[in-house]
Amino acid sequence: MAGAKRTVPEELQRLMRYLPESEEDERARFLAAADDFVGGSSPGDLRAFSPLTRVKLWLAKEHRLDDLETVIRYERDNPQAHLVRGRLSPSVEVPGIAPSSLPKEVTRLKNSEMPLVTKLTDMAWVEGRLRLRGYAYVRNVPVESAPRVPAMAWLTDTASRRRVVVRMAPRHEPRATADSKQALHCYDWAGFELFVDPAKLRGGHGWKPSTWSLTLGVWASGRPHRAGLVPGDIGPSGHQHAHRLDASTRWVSAFRKKRLEFEIQPVEAELVGHSLDADLLSLGLRGPAERPVEGLVLSHGPAKEPVEREYRAEADGPDGRRRVTVPLADLSVADTEETRELRAHAVVGGRRVPVVVGEGVLSQAHPTDGGREISVGVTAVDTLVLHDRLRQPVVDAMEWVEGDLVLSGSYTGPDRDRVMVLRHGERFEEVPVPVEVADGRFRAVIDPEHHDSHGDTLPLRKGRWYMSFRSARDWDDSNDVPVKIRHDLVPRLPLVHQGAKRSYSVDHRFHDRLFLSPASPLDDSEKGAYRQRVLREAFTAEQKALPLREAVFYNSFGGKQFSDSPRAVYEELVRRGAEVDHLWSVDDQQVSLPPGVVPVEWHSREWYEALARSRYVVTNVGIGDWFVRREGQTVVQTWHGTPLKKIGADLLGTPKANRAYIASLPHRSRQWDFLVSPNSFTTPIMRGAFRCETEILEAGYPRNDVFHAPDREERAERTRKLLGIPEGKKVVLYAPTWRDDQRYGGTRFKLDLRIDLEAAQRELAEDHVLLFRKHPKVLDSIPGAGQGFVWDVSKYPDIADLYLITDVLITDYSSVFFDFAHSGKPMLFFTYDLEHYRDTLRGFYFDLTARAPGPLIKTSDELIGSIRDIGAVTEEYARQYEAFVRDFCHPSDGRATQRVVDRMLGGGEG
Length: 910
Prior knowledge:
By secondary structure, the protein is an alpha+beta fold. 22% of the residues lie in helices and 32% in strands.
């Protein structure tokens, strides 16, 4: 292998990734590929690769496949982390591999492979000194207790190279471990606190302009490590800021190349006031008496080719005061609806200098034509900036009042039909909030602990909720106007309220963009991969030593719903009067439960306790290959759908196959007492695709008993009233699955919307409503939701209730159509990407084109027409629908739950 070759060939990577699961012919191909790539390599040739990759390639070169499998499994268990041995010559270590069996050139770690990881978490002025908090650790070197050798920091004048040492005090900071996203090491004592005293940077002749870099130094593994301090992304740690040292000097905390540094700057021009008179903006400026302000330059557009205008300064009183007058019309420079920034520089002594905004001078916006305004604003570092923008709400007062966040401020936009929208920064879901607008002011009250979710009261989910104004008539977010915060309120942030089970904070990003952030309900001992590993291993073992409790622990879709077959099992146990406690897994407090059911937060300490000590566990998804059922415990796997798309081991031979997951399937299935199958079609698929080594109970799905329930009409009527469906309107439910190739990343998928919702509203709204239910993995908001035709029911707890009120189902490849077929009501299949989805993305178990109980539709127009003519469609597909029910909907007698609970309680074998 030539020394310049730094990338492992893709085929070799693939073969090595799944080597522990490979067959003999695959191992032979792997060895041949390894020989071709590293056969003639020396240990030094591998130094360009990462540590564990070097180890794996060397073991491959030597054909030590057993040792190589040990490394691969270790890497799976510990992604992004490894052990380090040795102080004077640190090396990577893998348990089970003798260090002496590997060349030192392969295992020895380079300095670049032990970087100092730093993060600024808070920055504030305290009694004239700048306090910095954060963390700093050497990757893969744990810091489980206060370090014996103290860390240190130093400031360096970038011009003179003068150095000032700053003491760093160790601080317990569990966030360091959680942020690391690895499960092997604890970095809890990597936290630090340091104080920067500006007086120590002042020369003997007073302040002089200078720039100071900050360097952190940490001693680990027998050597020093140094790095700059990386900023956060929100709040004080994520924003540059300025601080006055005296009347003529200021301190600027700035970020250069994602590192914190400090500047000492003279104040050569200061904004002391501004006002508007007859469409003339008057700016009061002050400079040094010996060098008064000569003028003001405003520029906009690209920095390399800006459009500039210069305005002369007129004398305006003592102390070097000057006044610049700018026609408001000169500031209306935007040629689109976008915001256009006007950069401001004063001319002093023939030079252009920043205009520092004086203490007590507030930002203000002046309305102009076309729904726009000219804003006299302040940057993050307290300099003057102007904006030509759409009229924006600006918060100038905020407080927590008995759990409510009360915001008020200025807004000169439309005072009718306004609504404040909270939009999640990652999931893009939205929550509307009423807002009062009158006389150029607005007021909004947000109760983050109690927002309505289809009749249930839930807290806002964790994450950042950005605030915007929107017309109540707007179809989507394209015309949203962001809610900003006035700059003088920024030092009050974060504004925190402690709720019942979590905190809520108001904070900012991008300087003046306001958001509300509910924290995770988990505490520090439960957050992050490392803490979760401790809970899985040590804490779970402790709990398993305690007696089982007479309880049923339910898990529906990873704690996201009170729904599905686990709900049916719960209701049957209540009907029978079973003397058990009912515990329900709840993710982020986003599930409302009936009285008497105890919520257990997903992956909390209580969650692991419930899983270890409940006599019964009822789940419709996998728990994890770490889970082992204890003696005396009964685990019921109800699963959640008849498969159209290939799953599990049946994906072998396709790019979607995860060989490691497939190899774990026999172990996973052995943790279930039995697996519930909905029909005779699914039973053999489950046996093979899940490599199932436990009983499969072909009982039918408990969730589908709803179609036979004696109270189904009453339940349907309650659902219609709860949603507010107008009397006489037909209900169309659209429930598509996700698209593997439409994603933001990981398991976060985009909404692939191909229905022309505006056209559908024109054609159908008179006598139909469209209920839109996204798959839980799909993000994005739904256009038109809340306008009277489209209803977003993605967060409605149980789709079974929606089935009961649905007149027509639209789906694609989702398993919902197998369930809905029990209703006998019509279905339409919007399969606009059938060939691509079937042939490229997933693969099917049967020919959908031949067996679907409804038409496969390609275009939005055809779909709308089919809804309008649903009677003819139903008649055309009657025989196909009948055959589909015969093949996929038996047993279907309303007794599936009874059979499952009988088997669960030991009362029969089904």
